Every structure is written in structure tokens, then in C-alpha cells.
Amino acid sequence: MIKVRSRAGESVQQMVKRFKKMCEKEGLIRDIKRNSYYEKPSEKNRRRRRKAARMASMGSFSR
After folding, report:
1. Are 23 and 29 in contact (CB under 8 A)?
2. Which of 21, 23, 38, 61 is the S-S candidate for 28 at Cβ 3.0 to 4.6 Å?
3. Is-contact 4 17, C-beta < 8 A?
């Protein structure tokens, strides 16, 4: 769970900005967007295979 405590002299806008940054860092926003609609299992597998292929092709350039 993400908790944000007020720092001395910190405005509400700064706290919200810090909270959003923490959420983004944890990957919460990405997960919420992904779960906002139903994705068929075949689509999940296709997305995972594409990601794996991208990672594999990127790895061949660094060698």
C-alpha cells in the first residue's frame, strides 16, 4: 500500500504529485489500465509472446 505523509511546508499539490509519481513507479496505473477491460487469454498470450520476442531481439544487439 502506498502512503504519503506530509512533509514540513509541503503543499497539497506537491503531495499529490509525489503520490502520482510513486504510483507510476510501482506500476499501479499500468495495471489499472490493463484491468479496466477484459482481455481474452489468447490476447494475453499474444502480448506476452510479442514482448518476449522484442526482448530477445534487443538482447542480440548488445552482444
Report:
1. yes
2. 23
3. no
pLDDT digits (tens, 9 = 90+) for 8-44: 999 999 999 999 999 999 888 888 888 888 989 999 9
Q: The pTM is what?
A: 0.53
**By residue range, what is the domain housing residue 36?**
12-61
Residue 52 lies in a domain: yes
Number of domains in the chain: 1
6 is a domain residue: no
Between CA 39 and CA 55 the distance in angstroms is 22
Is residue 35, in this structure, part of any structural domain at all? yes
